[in-house]
Amino acid sequence: MADKLPDLFTIPNASDQIALLSVGLPAFAVAVQRASPDTSVPFDPMQGPPLVPDPNGNAWIVTQIAAPLAAARLWQVLLDPHTFGS
Question: Which residues sit opposite 33 in a β-bridge?
Fold first, then answer.
């Protein structure tokens, strides 16, 4: 995956997994900030609009995570005998 990432994205890091983990593991998102799209810059369909801090914005940006929770949960699921129907 790490080798493929530069070929898939023009941004320095991917963030989709943060949104998914924040929903699946609520304790994963330690801090969030509200934001709104910056409509003053041209829209990039590959990356979407840049977001700017806005206390009334309808977007939420995860600004701090509890990274070890993701790996711990993954191993918990992989090692659970019920995961694969055993």
Answer: 61
